[in-house]
Structures are given as C-alpha cells and as structure tokens.
Amino acid sequence: MANRNPKGRPPQPQHAGKSKPSRHDKRKRLGKHNPNRQYTVGANVPLTGTVANMAAAMSRLLDSRMAFRLPIVIAGAMLAGGRRTAASWFRCAGVKEDWDRFYDLLQSIGKNASELMLPILIVVLKQFDPGEGGFWKMAIDDSPTKRFGPCVEAANIHHNPTPGPGDGDWLYGHNWVCLAMLLSHPIFGVIALPLRSLLYVRKIDIDKLKERYGWEFRTKHQLALELLHHVIGLLRASGSKAGIAVVFDGAYAAAELIRPLMAEGVVVVTRLRRDAKLFDVPVNNAGRRGRPRKYGKNRISLAKRACHRDGWQTICYACRGVMAEGRYKTFLATSHVVGGAVRVVLVEHARGNWAAYISTEPAMSVDAILQLVSDRWAIEEQFHDVKEVWGAGEQQVRNVWSSIGCWNLCGWLYGLVELACWDETAEQLVDRRDRPWDNPSRRPSHADRRRRIAREMLRSEFLSDLQNAADQAKIRDRLERLLFLAA
C-alpha cells in the first residue's frame, strides 16, 4: 500500500539535481538563416464546420504573425492519440521545421487566455441567453494535474481530491481554479462549458515567479472572484438581462468571495460545513432605539437539527438528468460569511448521512437550490473528460505561460466539441452496431463527440479528391498521409 503522511501535512517535493542545459540553443539556431528550412502553412487535415469557424474567430485575437498557427494546433489535438503531449499535437497537425514557433504560440495562448475565450462566450450568449427572468448558471471549482521534474515552473505539492488505491493524499503538479458555464441540454442533461482557468501558485513558490514574471500571490478565493468579475462584466456589457447564479463547493464558502458577489446582485449557492457557525433570524426591533440586529442571539447547530427525526419532508427534483426523491429540512438563518440572512437546506442521502446547503437568496425555493447543487456535478464530469479525452496536464511543457495555455486550450477544445455537436442526436454521434455487448441507449460520451468531429475532418480531406474524377496521384498521396496518421 502507498505510504501516507500520518500528520496530514503536505510533504516537501524531493528531486534529483537539475539536468544540464540543452546543447540545442534556440538563439544560436535562429541566429543563422537556413534557406532550406521548411515552414508550416496549414494542417495536414484541416478543421471543418463549426469548429473551424470558432477556431478562426479565436485566432483573430492573436498577433497576426502567429494567428494562423492556432487552427493548426487545434486540428492536431483533434486527431492526436495516446499520450497527448504538445509534440503529439504538432506531429498529427503536420508541423515542420518551425516547430519552435508553435511552442511560442502556447505561451501566447496562456498570456491572452482572457481574450481567447470571447468567441466561445459569444456563441453561448447568442444560443443560450435565458432572457429576463432566467439565470445564467456558473460553477467554480479547482482541479490539480500531476507533473514531474524540478524544472516545471509553479509546480509543487497539492491536495489530491481523488486518491486511488495506489495514490496518496498529495500530488506534485499544478492546481487550477476553473470557471464553467452550466448549460442544460434537452436530451443529455447539464453540460459544463469551461470558459477560463487561472493557475494557483503556493506562496512558497512566489519568489521564483515574482523575480522572473512579476507574479503576485493570490488565494483561490481571489482567483475565483477575478474569473467571475470578468465573465459577469462581459455578460452585462453584452446586454443580457438574465440574472446570475453561482454554485461552488464548501471550500469556496468564504466571505471574501461571497460578499463581493452579493454586492453585484449574484445569487450564490454553496455547501456548508457541518460545524458551520449559524444564528437564528433576529427579532424585528421596529420602534426601538439603536441599529437593528443583523444576526440572531441563538446559535444554530446543524448536527442537532439533522438528528431530529421530526420535520423532514419529501421532495422530487431533477438530479443529473433523472428525477430523484429525497428528504429535506429547510429554515432561515443568519451567517457571518454572508453578512445576513440565508436559506438553509438539509438533505438526507441516507440515515445519518446528510449535507447542508445555503442560498444567499432567502426566497429561493428548495427545488431550485437542489437543482443548482446537482448541476454543479457537471464541472466534475468536465474535469474527467478534459484529462482523460484531451490529456490536460500531459503536454510536457515547463514554462508557466505554456502550462496555462495548454490547460485552457484543452478546456476550449472540450467546449468547441460540445457546441459543435449540440444539435445532433445520439444516432448521429455514435453507431454501436459493431458492439452488440454495449447498451445502445447509453448516452454518447464526450469521446464519441470528439471522434465524430475527427471523422468529419478525415472524410472531408480524403474524399474531396473523388468528387469529380479519380486522380491516382492524389489518391496515393492521401492514402500515404492516412497511413502516417494511423501509425
């Protein structure tokens, strides 16, 4: 079994000595003009359809000297398999001897992530605006990625949220604070579209980055607030009249995050600790001298309220695409974290197993609160697919801006595929006739959607020469490239 730290303190990273500098100095290579150097002008298999349009819109936000490279990298990522390093993206895209310029592109993506997400947000605004009376639903959470080696900038020990049988409670790598838009699909349930992520750097590593990049330390709550301020400002500047609801886990239930959001008119739904400090609603002091009380005098114990068998009610609500029946208790309370009254909902999953949630809008219904809580799980599914399908964290880049660019690019790839396949049926996304053991009614996975886009790219590229008349030379060339991709 894996050795675990009995004290619960994060261990310190231990590495061997750093390797020697590379003999292939980029500055020396670029200082000498090579007239025979081959430059990449396009992808071997270019993008098609909606993905191509959105990739082109994103590329127009970059410097014109490197903008054409972004669709090439996205096309390579669509076709890459195995361990999805940056080099595998470039190989499947057909990058030639100017590969070093594509690594520069990854740094530029990291530095301009706040602008590059705009085309995706514009598509979401046009297609899914709930209008006046509705709500934009957003989720905040953090997710770590494993990295290796002492030369990876900003990497350190972080808490492992999902330790398996062979993993420990801690991992070495990066930690990302992510913002996703929660959208309800009419058939496939709630889907989380990642918009932007920020890198959380531990305070112990700030000195190295501050000296090189002028980096400043910020907590996860401050990073989450920056992400939300940016997106909320864009939504309101676009003229959207819909309200905004934000849901996150109990780790983000802090006054420095919740109170600024409430000041902007945002409804916050979050989980509470079982030992959370709550008070009852104060008595109305109308007619008395002095400022009215904000908090009640009596402390509320969530554990005691959950232990009482009286007062539980039954409710049926939509939970992750299916109707679920649960038992709940609800009441009003006041909290120092929120700075006023909240709606508290206790949900009993099994006897003795319960959880507490709050909404900063006391008039919010229990059904709406539980709906938001269940919708938040979509961001966990998105983390799984971004890592398993797109290989987020596997790109083997060391520069901190390249790491930020690769992580955000993997999230945008997820969003591009989901948006491109939004209106397609399950039969169009996947054909399981060659898998009789599989459940034919199973919901198509994100990997099925990605393969659907990749098949369209290959079909458009390799069958285009057969539209008018057969050309043996072109057919042979296409087949050679197809064999290269298959290998």
UniProtKB/TrEMBL annotation:
Superkingdom, natural source: Bacteria
InterPro entries the UniProt entry points to: IS701-like_DDE_dom, RNaseH-like_sf
Biased composition (Basic residues): 17-35
Transmembrane segments: none
UniProt region (Disordered), positions on chain: 1-42
Span of domain Transposase IS701-like DDE: 69-299
Protein name: Transposase DDE domain protein
Source taxonomy: Bacteria, Pseudomonadati, Planctomycetota, Planctomycetia, Pirellulales
